[in-house]
Design goal:
This protein is mainly alpha-helical. The chain folds into two domains: about 100 residues; about 240 residues, no CATH class. The protein has 14 helices and no strands. The protein is globular and about 65 Å long.
Length: about 350
């Protein structure tokens, strides 16, 4: 394969990043609008190559480009970060803009001068994160061996993902339930592994190697799994929140006043990003499935929020009941979250799996 053709997506994405570098240095205006528009266009072009070329890049490449383009677009449209190109040296501007570019969660960043100290803290940070990445790699390696063997042992066929298996209120056999649980857990793990490991790589690079950032500026991407005993806590505490800040910036003004609608808007934008990613990678329109899944997840989170307050208030009136729910509640909650994914995964992911297998 022609090496120039292979590196074309990377070169185009770097050019799109250069356009962001130029646009973010000026206030809102025609120049910023033109550079920002071209930035979005070239970022989109960078992932519109033949699937055989995109497949040579890491699997997270397309979601990475989409996520960062949403982030940079939110900055350019809202004027969230504007640098005065006349007041700083070129090197200082480059550092500040690169920190803005990589700060997709819009975390509060410290002063650049503070990043040159703390050699011991940087080393410990790199060791701790490196150990986490190593253990994650070992677990993923074991899963990559065991998972296909389990699928073979239980006799998985393409018909298990066929349209008559993609509904919710179906008569599911133990085979169907077990397969859905496997697919659900595998999706959660692979997403966690890919995002977390790449986040660790960037964190070690920018904190310990380039010493551009402080350890506190790269907090863990995911929360504790032990906190995910409701669907709301799964999305709000355990799951990554990479997209929350950019999506908030892209929320229409009339929705900002209503937290319930603002949260729904964020779920809808998440669905749109998943649909775009699947369209680019698999050339499959999954809009119906994605918007159904994220709308359903939002609705259940809303019901959990409204019902939990009344439920806990009732349990507090019964001391023994409140004590029991504190002990047993989390375990029931984990089962509830897994049950949601088991029943939702068929309608959400099975159509894509079925088509990918040639169905």
């Amino acid at each position: 394969m022609d090496f120039f053709l292979l590196f074309q997506p990377l070169l185009i994405f770097l050019f799109a990043t250069l356009l962001f570098y130029l646009a973010v240095q000026v206030p809102k205006g025609c120049y910023r609008l033109v550079c920002g528009s071209l930035h979005v266009i070239f970022a989109a072009v960078s992932i519109q190559f033949h699937p055989d070329i995109i497949a040579l890049y890491p699997g997270i490449t397309v979601p990475f480009v989409i996520g960062f383009t949403v982030h940079t677009t939110s900055i350019l449209l809202t004027g969230w970060h504007v640098l005065d190109s006349d007041s700083n040296s070129s090197l200082h501007r480059f550092k500040e803009i690169s920190r803005t570019w990589s700060n997709i969660r819009h975390l509060e960043l410290g002063h650049d001068a503070a990043c040159n100290s703390m050699p011991r803290e940087r080393l410990l940070f790199a060791i701790r994160r490196g150990v986490v990445a190593l253990f994650s790699w070992i677990i993923n390696y074991v899963i990559s061996i065991i998972f296909p063997q389990i699928l073979l042992k239980i006799g998985v066929r393409i018909q298990d993902f066929a349209p008559d298996k993609q509904g919710i209120l179906l008569h599911l056999t133990w085979h169907d339930l077990f397969l859905r649980a496997l697919i659900s857990l595998h999706w959660i793990w692979t997403t966690y592994y890919a995002l977390n490991c790449w986040h660790i790589i960037y964190a070690i690079a920018f904190v310990a190697i380039f010493r551009r950032d402080r350890p506190s500026e790269w907090p863990p991407l995911f929360g504790s799994l032990f906190e995910a005993f409701t669907l709301r806590r799964f999305w709000g505490i355990f799951w990554h929140r990479l997209h929350i800040a950019p999506f908030k910036d892209l929320t229409p003004a009339f929705l900002q006043k209503f937290p319930v609608l603002r949260a729904f808007w964020i779920f809808l934008l998440s669905a749109a990003c998943h649909t775009l990613s699947n369209w680019i990678i698999y050339h499959t329109n999954t809009a119906k499935e994605d918007f159904w899944f994220f709308s359903t997840a939002y609705a259940i989170c809303l019901v959990e929020t409204l019902s939990s307050k009344a439920f806990l208030a009732t349990m507090r009136e019964i001391d023994s009941g409140y004590l029991m729910i504190n002990r047993v509640g989390p375990f029931l909650g984990y089962a509830w979250v897994l049950t949601f994914f088991v029943y939702a995964i068929g309608r959400w992911q099975y159509p894509l799996v079925y088509k990918s297998l040639g169905g």
